[in-house]
Design a protein that fits this description.
This protein is an alpha+beta fold. The protein folds into two domains: 169 residues, Double Stranded RNA Binding Domain; 62 residues. It has eight helices and five strands; from the N terminus they run ααββαβββααααα. The strands form two sheets. It has a three-stranded antiparallel sheet. It starts with a helix and ends in an 11-residue tail after the last helix.
């Protein structure tokens, strides 16, 4: 009797997911997308109303919440996460984590790595790269452990578009809650870090040069317009003559501590 009840509940969930998916996408889902959702629901018990999966840019994506709920239903034995310190660079905002999922007590574990830096995360989460990297590692390990071929939303390096006009990923965050972004653009600090990494420049010397360019005691004392002008000049100089730029940067001593 219990097996029959479970099958009935699963059938109701399939019907509910398909009905909700058609409503959210204005009935624009094709036959393949519907069948894919049906298969995902039957195989993993994902719930669209709970946010386990999302339909973005013409495809289905699993979410972190959906993976965690699946691990609980499957009675996951444990998840271990730690930083891969030798690959992390806090100054550049780059973080790498390793996650190991143990789906059952005597499992050897399924490993997943997750990395994040300002260049591969959405502008909405700049400044939170460490958390994004950890989430990505856990997601990849969980997907391996339970055989899920879908990419997770959190692993995307862009802001996805949803067919649901009311979806959270289409709403622009208010300026006061954008972690220092202006009109959804990356922070100046992120742009500077990307240039430093791209051209392999010495961060301390670049900061000293920036303070000198802005004619301020420290880079922190400079105005946004001054910093932006410096970054534009630095980018142009690095692209045209990196060796010449490095020679000029070497004229600044590392002992000049400048805090950005």
């Amino acid at each position: 009797m219990k097996r029959v009840a479970d099958t009935s509940e699963l059938g109701i969930l399939v019907h509910r997911n398909i009905r909700l998916a058609r409503r959210l996408t204005n009935r624009q889902l094709g036959t393949i997308a519907i069948e894919r959702l049906r298969d995902l629901t039957k195989t993993f018990g994902f719930s669209l109303s709970l946010g386990d999966v999302q339909y973005l840019d013409g495809g289905w994506y699993i979410t972190h919440a959906g993976l965690l709920r699946l691990s609980r239903r499957r009675r996951c034995s444990g998840i271990r996460v730690h930083q891969v310190r030798q690959l992390c660079d806090p100054v550049m905002g780059r973080w790498v984590f390793k996650a190991t999922v143990y789906p059952y007590p005597r499992s050897k574990g399924f490993v997943g790595f997750g990395d994040a830096d300002p260049s591969n995360v959405s502008a909405l989460v700049h400044g939170a790269e460490m958390r994004v990297a950890e989430t990505r590692a856990v997601n990849r390990a969980l997907r391996k452990a339970y055989g899920i071929g879908l990419c997770s939303v959190e692993e995307l390096g862009w802001t996805p578009r949803s067919n649901d006009s009311g979806s959270f990923d289409q709403r622009k965050p208010p300026v006061s809650a954008n972690n220092g972004h202006q009109n959804g653009q990356p922070r100046l600090r992120d742009r500077l870090c990307l240039l430093i990494r791209q051209y392999q420049l010495d961060a301390g010397l670049v900061k000293a040069s920036a303070a000198d360019f802005c004619k301020t005691p420290t880079l922190r004392d400079a105005s946004r317009d001054q910093v932006e002008a410096f970054i534009n000049t630095l980018a142009e100089s690095a692209a045209k003559d990196r060796d010449g730029l490095i020679c000029r940067l070497n004229s600044y001593t590392k002992s000049e501590e400048v805090v950005s």
